[in-house]
Design goal:
Blueprint lengths: L6 H24 L6 H14 L3 E2 L12 E4 L2 E3 L13 E10 L2 E10 L5 H18 L8 H14 L3 E2 L5 E3 L6 E5 L16 E4 L2 E3 L5 E3 L6 E3 L5 E3 L2 E4 L6 E2 L6
Antiparallel strand pairs: 1-4, 2-4, 3-12, 4-5, 6-10, 7-8, 9-14, 10-13, 11-12, 14-15
Pfam family, one: Peptidase_M24
Protein name: Methionine aminopeptidase
Organism: Lentibacillus cibarius
């Protein structure tokens, strides 16, 4: 069932989004060669606790960590680990914050030290594809309009769009209806209505879009070892245009 959120619910989700943004900005300062993603996980759990919040994904279907940390060819749901990040890596940090029952979900891909030109381009196209999708998150549009905008842009730039994982509705739990594919046809799918809250989170690959699962049954990675990047916002559908509760540029 698709739910439309009340003004009060959206205000709580915005407060969670504001805290998530603060956490991401602290993580951005920490990411450099030599740090471990386990250190970032420990920091996140402590930071959220100090601000009266919890990492909503910890314990979700048994997931054991406060963040997902996906490195290079890992598409999503990478486990934090003690391996040090190296110069030239890219790492996606994804988290869901619960603050007084309001949820916010956002992923961001970070450069570790100095990356090559191909990685720079992958990140730029991935981030732009997110905003291409957000532009279509308007009342009266359909879910297919979002996916079509992302797919046509990313594929036009020579990249592929992951199809095995999608965005989703959010609140009061992490994953609600509807699913938000990052590919598709315009004018197809569920119609967007004011008050819906969704995540748009395209995962863009250098090579093939197909994924394979690690032995932990969580971490997905590319089948051809191409790198993958992801940017995600939590988006409220409003008559005045998309409202990003996780906007880092306010």
């Amino acid at each position: 069932m698709i739910t439309r959120k009340s003004k009060r619910e959206i205000e709580k989700m915005q407060a969670a989004g504001d805290l998530l943004v603060k956490c991401h900005k602290e993580i951005a300062k920490m990411i450099k060669p030599g740090i471990t993603t386990m250190e970032l996980d420990t920091f996140t759990e402590k930071f959220l606790a100090e601000h009266g919040a919890t990492p909503e994904q910890k314990g979700y279907s048994g997931y054991p960590y406060a963040i997902c940390a996906s490195i290079n060819d890992e598409i999503c749901h990478g486990f934090p680990r003690e391996e040090e990040l190296a110069d030239g890596d890219i790492v996606t940090i994804d988290m869901v914050v619960n603050l007084n029952g309001g949820l916010a979900d956002s992923a961001w891909t970070y450069k570790v030290g100095t990356v090559d030109d191909a990685a720079e381009r992958l990140l730029n196209v991935s981030k732009t594809s997110l905003y291409k999708g957000i532009e279509q998150a308007l009342p009266g549009n359909r879910i297919g309009d979002i996916g079509h905008a992302i797919q046509t842009y990313a594929e036009g730039e020579g990249f592929s769009v992951v199809r095995d994982f999608t965005g989703h509705g959010i609140g009061p739990t992490i994953h609600e209806e509807p699913h938000i594919p990052h590919f598709g046809l315009p004018n197809k799918g569920t119609r967007l209505k004011e008050g819906m809250v969704i995540t748009i989170e395209p995962m863009i690959n250098e090579g093939s879009w197909q994924s394979k699962m690690d032995g932990n049954n969580w971490t997905a990675r590319t089948v051809d070892k191409g790198r993958s990047a992801q940017y995600e916002h939590t988006v409220v559908i409003t008559q005045d245009g998309p409202l990003l509760t996780t906007d880092q540029d306010k």
